Amino acid sequence: MFVVTEQRGGPAEDALADTGPLAREFAALTGALLASGSVADVLARVVAAVRRVVPGADMVSVTLRDDDGRFHTPVETDPAASSIDEAQYTSGCGPCVEAARADGPALAFSDDLAAESRWSDFAHAAVGHGFHSVLAVSLIPDAEPPRLPGALNVYATDRRAFTSADRDRLMLLATHASLALATCVAVSDAGLQETQLRQAIASRDVIGQAKGILMARRGLTAEEAFDVLRRTSQDLNVKLVELAGTVTAHPTALDTD
Protein backbone atom coordinates (compact mmCIF):
# COMPACT_ATOMS: atom_id res chain seq x y z
CA MET A 1 0.00 0.00 0.00
CA PHE A 2 1.10 3.55 -0.64
CA VAL A 3 -0.32 4.81 2.66
CA VAL A 4 -1.19 3.17 5.94
CA THR A 5 -4.77 3.18 7.17
CA GLU A 6 -4.16 4.47 10.69
CA GLN A 7 -3.26 8.07 11.45
CA ARG A 8 -0.35 8.71 13.77
CA GLY A 9 0.22 12.46 13.60
CA GLY A 10 3.61 13.94 14.42
CA PRO A 11 5.94 16.57 12.97
CA ALA A 12 6.20 17.19 9.23
CA GLU A 13 9.67 15.72 8.97
CA ASP A 14 8.29 12.41 10.18
CA ALA A 15 5.48 12.38 7.61
CA LEU A 16 7.14 9.68 5.54
CA ALA A 17 6.86 7.34 8.51
CA ASP A 18 3.08 7.52 8.13
CA THR A 19 3.21 6.13 4.61
CA GLY A 20 3.15 2.50 3.61
CA PRO A 21 6.25 0.47 2.73
CA LEU A 22 5.74 0.87 -1.02
CA ALA A 23 5.65 4.66 -0.78
CA ARG A 24 8.81 4.61 1.32
CA GLU A 25 10.46 2.32 -1.22
CA PHE A 26 9.68 4.70 -4.07
CA ALA A 27 10.83 7.70 -2.04
CA ALA A 28 14.13 5.95 -1.31
CA LEU A 29 14.47 4.94 -4.95
CA THR A 30 13.92 8.51 -6.12
CA GLY A 31 16.73 9.71 -3.88
CA ALA A 32 19.01 6.89 -5.02
CA LEU A 33 18.33 7.57 -8.69
CA LEU A 34 19.03 11.27 -8.26
CA ALA A 35 22.38 10.32 -6.74
CA SER A 36 23.23 7.89 -9.54
CA GLY A 37 26.14 8.98 -11.66
CA SER A 38 25.86 6.66 -14.64
CA VAL A 39 23.45 4.65 -16.74
CA ALA A 40 24.85 1.43 -15.30
CA ASP A 41 24.26 2.69 -11.76
CA VAL A 42 20.66 3.66 -12.56
CA LEU A 43 19.89 0.28 -14.10
CA ALA A 44 21.45 -1.62 -11.19
CA ARG A 45 19.39 0.35 -8.66
CA VAL A 46 16.17 -0.11 -10.62
CA VAL A 47 16.67 -3.85 -11.02
CA ALA A 48 17.31 -4.18 -7.29
CA ALA A 49 14.16 -2.15 -6.56
CA VAL A 50 12.05 -4.42 -8.79
CA ARG A 51 13.10 -7.43 -6.73
CA ARG A 52 11.92 -5.64 -3.60
CA VAL A 53 8.72 -4.05 -4.94
CA VAL A 54 7.32 -6.86 -7.12
CA PRO A 55 6.78 -9.87 -4.79
CA GLY A 56 6.67 -12.49 -7.54
CA ALA A 57 9.85 -11.35 -9.29
CA ASP A 58 12.30 -14.25 -9.44
CA MET A 59 14.46 -12.74 -12.19
CA VAL A 60 14.77 -9.23 -13.65
CA SER A 61 16.46 -7.94 -16.78
CA VAL A 62 16.67 -4.76 -18.84
CA THR A 63 16.34 -4.61 -22.61
CA LEU A 64 18.01 -1.68 -24.38
CA ARG A 65 18.83 -0.92 -27.99
CA ASP A 66 21.99 0.28 -29.68
CA ASP A 67 21.94 3.21 -32.08
CA ASP A 68 21.52 0.76 -34.94
CA GLY A 69 18.34 -0.60 -33.30
CA ARG A 70 19.73 -3.96 -32.18
CA PHE A 71 18.52 -5.24 -28.79
CA HIS A 72 20.79 -6.28 -25.93
CA THR A 73 20.52 -7.08 -22.20
CA PRO A 74 22.97 -4.89 -20.24
CA VAL A 75 21.69 -5.77 -16.75
CA GLU A 76 20.23 -8.98 -15.32
CA THR A 77 19.84 -10.72 -11.98
CA ASP A 78 20.46 -14.18 -13.44
CA PRO A 79 22.50 -15.29 -16.50
CA ALA A 80 19.42 -17.15 -17.73
CA ALA A 81 17.84 -13.80 -18.56
CA SER A 82 20.35 -13.11 -21.33
CA SER A 83 19.67 -16.49 -22.91
CA ILE A 84 15.89 -16.05 -22.71
CA ASP A 85 16.00 -12.47 -23.93
CA GLU A 86 18.30 -13.41 -26.81
CA ALA A 87 15.71 -15.92 -28.05
CA GLN A 88 13.27 -13.10 -28.66
CA TYR A 89 15.89 -10.71 -30.02
CA THR A 90 16.74 -13.33 -32.64
CA SER A 91 13.15 -14.14 -33.56
CA GLY A 92 11.90 -10.59 -33.17
CA CYS A 93 8.98 -11.87 -31.10
CA GLY A 94 8.49 -11.61 -27.36
CA PRO A 95 7.08 -9.40 -24.60
CA CYS A 96 10.32 -7.49 -24.05
CA VAL A 97 10.65 -6.73 -27.78
CA GLU A 98 7.01 -5.66 -27.98
CA ALA A 99 7.30 -3.38 -24.95
CA ALA A 100 10.53 -1.91 -26.33
CA ARG A 101 9.00 -0.92 -29.66
CA ALA A 102 8.04 2.72 -30.08
CA ASP A 103 4.72 1.61 -31.56
CA GLY A 104 4.32 -1.28 -29.12
CA PRO A 105 1.80 -1.79 -26.31
CA ALA A 106 4.08 -0.37 -23.55
CA LEU A 107 3.16 -3.39 -21.42
CA ALA A 108 3.24 -7.07 -22.42
CA PHE A 109 2.81 -10.15 -20.24
CA SER A 110 1.98 -13.83 -20.14
CA ASP A 111 0.55 -15.77 -17.18
CA ASP A 112 1.41 -19.19 -18.58
CA LEU A 113 4.36 -19.39 -20.96
CA ALA A 114 3.97 -23.16 -21.35
CA ALA A 115 0.66 -22.48 -23.12
CA GLU A 116 1.82 -19.29 -24.87
CA SER A 117 1.26 -19.26 -28.65
CA ARG A 118 2.26 -15.65 -29.45
CA TRP A 119 6.01 -16.00 -28.91
CA SER A 120 6.89 -19.66 -29.39
CA ASP A 121 10.70 -19.39 -29.48
CA PHE A 122 10.81 -17.07 -26.50
CA ALA A 123 8.28 -19.11 -24.52
CA HIS A 124 10.20 -22.32 -25.19
CA ALA A 125 13.45 -20.73 -23.96
CA ALA A 126 11.79 -19.31 -20.84
CA VAL A 127 10.07 -22.55 -19.86
CA GLY A 128 13.30 -24.41 -20.55
CA HIS A 129 14.92 -22.30 -17.82
CA GLY A 130 12.00 -22.87 -15.45
CA PHE A 131 10.12 -19.57 -15.88
CA HIS A 132 6.37 -19.58 -16.54
CA SER A 133 5.29 -15.94 -16.13
CA VAL A 134 6.68 -12.75 -17.63
CA LEU A 135 5.88 -9.07 -17.37
CA ALA A 136 7.58 -6.40 -19.51
CA VAL A 137 7.03 -2.63 -19.54
CA SER A 138 8.45 0.05 -21.80
CA LEU A 139 11.56 1.94 -20.71
CA ILE A 140 12.34 5.29 -22.36
CA PRO A 141 16.03 6.09 -21.77
CA ASP A 142 16.04 9.15 -24.06
CA ALA A 143 13.21 11.49 -24.99
CA GLU A 144 15.15 12.92 -27.93
CA PRO A 145 15.23 11.36 -31.43
CA PRO A 146 15.90 8.70 -32.52
CA ARG A 147 14.02 7.54 -29.35
CA LEU A 148 15.04 3.91 -29.01
CA PRO A 149 12.87 2.57 -26.16
CA GLY A 150 13.88 -0.41 -24.08
CA ALA A 151 12.02 -2.57 -21.59
CA LEU A 152 12.07 -3.55 -17.93
CA ASN A 153 11.43 -7.30 -17.74
CA VAL A 154 10.33 -9.48 -14.81
CA TYR A 155 10.19 -13.28 -14.79
CA ALA A 156 8.61 -15.71 -12.32
CA THR A 157 8.81 -19.48 -11.97
CA ASP A 158 5.13 -19.72 -11.01
CA ARG A 159 2.21 -19.42 -13.40
CA ARG A 160 -0.05 -16.39 -12.89
CA ALA A 161 2.60 -14.89 -10.64
CA PHE A 162 1.88 -11.22 -11.32
CA THR A 163 -1.18 -9.24 -10.24
CA SER A 164 -2.59 -6.04 -11.70
CA ALA A 165 -0.97 -4.25 -8.77
CA ASP A 166 2.40 -5.69 -9.80
CA ARG A 167 1.87 -4.27 -13.29
CA ASP A 168 1.14 -0.84 -11.84
CA ARG A 169 4.24 -1.02 -9.65
CA LEU A 170 6.43 -2.01 -12.55
CA MET A 171 5.03 0.82 -14.67
CA LEU A 172 5.90 3.28 -11.90
CA LEU A 173 9.40 1.83 -11.59
CA ALA A 174 9.89 2.08 -15.35
CA THR A 175 8.80 5.72 -15.24
CA HIS A 176 11.31 6.47 -12.48
CA ALA A 177 14.02 4.64 -14.40
CA SER A 178 13.20 6.42 -17.66
CA LEU A 179 13.48 9.84 -16.04
CA ALA A 180 16.74 8.92 -14.33
CA LEU A 181 18.23 7.52 -17.54
CA ALA A 182 17.17 10.59 -19.51
CA THR A 183 18.78 12.77 -16.85
CA CYS A 184 22.02 10.78 -17.10
CA VAL A 185 22.07 11.21 -20.86
CA ALA A 186 21.25 14.91 -20.57
CA VAL A 187 24.00 15.43 -18.00
CA SER A 188 26.48 13.56 -20.18
CA ASP A 189 25.49 15.60 -23.22
CA ALA A 190 25.70 18.82 -21.25
CA GLY A 191 29.15 17.88 -19.99
CA LEU A 192 30.30 17.09 -23.50
CA GLN A 193 28.93 20.36 -24.84
CA GLU A 194 30.59 22.30 -22.02
CA THR A 195 33.91 20.60 -22.76
CA GLN A 196 33.59 21.34 -26.46
CA LEU A 197 32.69 24.96 -25.72
CA ARG A 198 35.72 25.36 -23.49
CA GLN A 199 37.93 23.84 -26.14
CA ALA A 200 36.49 26.17 -28.77
CA ILE A 201 37.07 29.22 -26.57
CA ALA A 202 40.63 28.10 -25.78
CA SER A 203 41.32 27.51 -29.48
CA ARG A 204 39.97 30.92 -30.40
CA ASP A 205 42.10 32.59 -27.73
CA VAL A 206 45.36 30.92 -28.77
CA ILE A 207 44.72 31.67 -32.46
CA GLY A 208 44.04 35.29 -31.53
CA GLN A 209 47.32 35.46 -29.62
CA ALA A 210 49.24 33.99 -32.56
CA LYS A 211 47.63 36.49 -34.93
CA GLY A 212 48.66 39.33 -32.61
CA ILE A 213 52.25 38.14 -32.59
CA LEU A 214 52.42 38.00 -36.40
CA MET A 215 50.74 41.40 -36.73
CA ALA A 216 53.30 42.96 -34.38
CA ARG A 217 56.35 41.26 -35.87
CA ARG A 218 55.40 41.63 -39.55
CA GLY A 219 53.14 44.66 -39.62
CA LEU A 220 50.23 42.56 -40.94
CA THR A 221 46.50 43.12 -40.67
CA ALA A 222 44.44 40.65 -38.67
CA GLU A 223 43.18 39.06 -41.90
CA GLU A 224 46.69 38.77 -43.33
CA ALA A 225 48.01 37.24 -40.12
CA PHE A 226 45.24 34.64 -40.07
CA ASP A 227 45.94 33.82 -43.73
CA VAL A 228 49.59 33.16 -42.85
CA LEU A 229 48.54 30.79 -40.10
CA ARG A 230 46.02 29.03 -42.34
CA ARG A 231 48.45 28.54 -45.26
CA THR A 232 51.26 27.39 -42.99
CA SER A 233 49.04 24.86 -41.20
CA GLN A 234 48.05 23.42 -44.59
CA ASP A 235 51.65 23.33 -45.84
CA LEU A 236 52.89 21.61 -42.67
CA ASN A 237 49.77 19.42 -42.34
CA VAL A 238 49.19 20.42 -38.72
CA LYS A 239 46.06 21.71 -37.07
CA LEU A 240 45.64 25.46 -37.03
CA VAL A 241 45.28 25.59 -33.24
CA GLU A 242 48.46 23.52 -32.79
CA LEU A 243 50.40 25.86 -35.06
CA ALA A 244 49.01 28.85 -33.18
CA GLY A 245 50.17 27.28 -29.92
CA THR A 246 53.67 26.92 -31.33
CA VAL A 247 53.72 30.59 -32.40
CA THR A 248 52.56 31.79 -28.97
CA ALA A 249 55.21 29.67 -27.27
CA HIS A 250 57.93 30.61 -29.78
CA PRO A 251 57.14 33.98 -31.40
CA THR A 252 59.98 33.65 -33.92
CA ALA A 253 58.81 30.23 -35.20
CA LEU A 254 57.43 31.62 -38.48
CA ASP A 255 59.95 34.38 -39.05
CA THR A 256 61.32 32.60 -42.12
CA ASP A 257 57.83 32.13 -43.64
What report would you give on this structure?
By secondary structure, the protein is an alpha+beta fold. It contains 8 helices and 5 strands. Helix 1 (21-35) runs parallel beside helix 6, helix 3 (80-91) runs antiparallel to helix 5 (120-128) and helix 6 crosses helix 8 (240-249). The radius of gyration is 28 Å and the shape is elongated. The termini are far apart.
Give the SSE layout.
Layout: H1 21-35, H2 39-53, E1 59-65, E2 71-76, H3 80-91, H4 95-99, E3 107-110, H5 120-128, E4 133-139, E5 150-156, H6 164-218, H7 222-236, H8 240-249
Antiparallel strand pairs: 1-2, 1-5, 3-4, 4-5
InterPro entries: ANTAR, GAF, GAF-like_dom_sf, GAF_ANTAR, WH-like_DNA-bd_sf
Protein name: GAF and ANTAR domain-containing protein
Domain ANTAR: 187-248
List descriptors.
five-stranded antiparallel sheet, 257 residues, 5 strands, GAF-like_dom_sf, transcription regulation
Summarize, please.
With 257 residues, this protein is α+β, with helices and mostly antiparallel strands.
Strand order of the largest sheet: 2-1-5-4-3
**End-to-end distance:** 79 Å
Fraction of residues in helix: 40-55%
Q: What is the N-to-C succession of helices and strands?
A: HHEEHHEHEEHHH
Looking at the structure, what is the overall shape? elongated
Instruction: Tell me the number of strands.
Output: 5
Q: Mind telling me the C-alpha Rg?
A: 28 Å
Could you name the ranges where pLDDT drops below 50 across 5 or more consecutive residues? 1-19, 186-197
Number of helices: 8
Summarize model confidence as the mean pLDDT: 77
Structural class: alpha+beta
